[in-house]
Amino acid sequence: MTSGFRPLLPADPQAIRALVRATGFFTPAEEEVAVELVEESLAKGAEKSGYHFHLYAGAEKLLGYACYGPVPMTLSGFDLYWIVVAPETQGKGLGARLLTACEQSVRGLGGKRLYSETSSRPLYTPTHKFYERHGFIAEARLIDFYAPGDDKIIYTKIL
Question: Is 0.85 topped by the overall pTM?
Answer without folding.
Answer: yes
